[in-house]
Amino acid sequence: MVKAKIAVNGYGTIGKRVADAVQAQDDMEVIGISKTKPNYEAAVAHQLGYDIYAPAENVGAFEKAGMRAAGTIEEMIEKADLVVDCTPGGIGEGNKPLYQKAGVKAIWQGGESHTIAGFSFNAASNYEGALGRDLVRVVSCNTTGLCRVISPIDRELGVKKVRVTLARRAADPNDVKKGPINAIVPDPIKLPSHHGPDVRSVLPQIDITTAALKIPTTLMHVHTVNMEVNTDCTADDIKKIFGSQSRIRFVGQGISSTAEIIEFARDIRRPRNDMWENCIWAESITVHEKEFYFFQAIHQESIVVPENVDAIRAMMELESDGAKSIEKTNKAIGL
Ligand code: NAD
């Protein structure tokens, strides 16, 4: 089978995980990753066997550090069928002319706005809409987590409205520039937060508003979700719907915090402690008339990773059925 040639531009928190997940599939392969500097992450990428590409002015610095760059970022893009842009939010937009000049397909992440691609993606919600597209944005970690729970409930029960409060991790574990911190920050103070409109970039029919607080943790986000539906239901009905979704995991057995979820991810030997699924406390699912509530935890570093693989598969038309792509991606990464 000829594999789709994938370049990962920006090899940080998301990029390194996307590269490994792509490499685990049998219908796509990583032809290169980009690093701006020859730091420890570049050294590990080199050891893992990835071809490293660098900005033209930094290629010499890689040579000096003993990890020969395979070429410039422009050269990497020329060799690819599709580039997954995992540069920091706001930077990806500047790369668009580069991708268009090379005639490659491109995926951006949730740090960019919907308009960059004109199509925002979540595998469980709108896989088929991404088939054959040249440009796609994979929505952020929080939006992915919300779409994964809203879509199946909307299909089964009809969603009347969704109200969410998000407790957001303040920084990723390696992000020393943003810490140390000791505060709870309404973010933003002016309500609602941007997460509701972002969900509507995938699910425009959903009435949703959100509020968010930044809290001093690096592990995960926690959402308090309240949904009003059009159909009478019980907590068991909700559990059955969530239980049918492969990227939703129920947590219990004494797991009462995000710290224990990450310990659990370590125990089940997930790479980098990644928890690709939404983690819902089944015990928290409470129904009041046609309204229900629950808590879910979202691992910001990894939840969008399988979504990127599915977006590639849809854009490259390697699989036309979203459910089959989800299953294939999950199996290859060990989910
Ligand atoms: P990051 O800072 O961890 O990684 C970005 C990488 O891109 C770094 O290695 C950086 O050196 C590199 N880079 C910077 N400028 C570059 C350029 N011009 N060309 C090539 N590489 C460049 O960022 P991240 O957390 O991985 O975020 C990437 C994207 O994913 C953002 O849009 C972000 O909003 C989104 N996202 C992040 C998270 C998260 O929690 N970290 C979750 C979901 C989505």
From TrEMBL:
SUPFAM superfamilies: Glyceraldehyde-3-phosphate dehydrogenase-like, C-terminal domain, NAD(P)-binding Rossmann-fold domains. Its main location: cytoplasm. It holds the Pfam family Gp_dh_C. It comes from the Archaea. D-glyceraldehyde 3-phosphate binds at residues 140-142, 195-196. The active site is at residue 141. One of its GO terms (molecular function) is glyceraldehyde-3-phosphate dehydrogenase [NAD(P)+] (phosphorylating) activity. NAD(+) binds at residues 13-14, 111, 169, 300. CDD domains: GAPDH_II_C, GAPDH_II_N. Its EC number is 1.2.1.59. SMART domains: Gp_dh_N (SM00846). It is found in: Cytoplasm. Pathway: Carbohydrate degradation; glycolysis; pyruvate from D-glyceraldehyde 3-phosphate: step 1/5. Residues 4-141 form the Glyceraldehyde 3-phosphate dehydrogenase NAD(P) binding domain. Keywords: Cytoplasm, Glycolysis, NAD, NADP, Oxidoreductase. It catalyses: D-glyceraldehyde 3-phosphate + phosphate + NADP(+) = (2R)-3-phospho-glyceroyl phosphate + NADPH + H(+); D-glyceraldehyde 3-phosphate + phosphate + NAD(+) = (2R)-3-phospho-glyceroyl phosphate + NADH + H(+). It is an enzyme of class 1 (oxidoreductase). NCBIfam families: GAPDH-II_archae, PRK04207.1. Homotetramer. Belongs to the glyceraldehyde-3-phosphate dehydrogenase family. This is Glyceraldehyde-3-phosphate dehydrogenase. It comes from Methanosarcina baikalica.
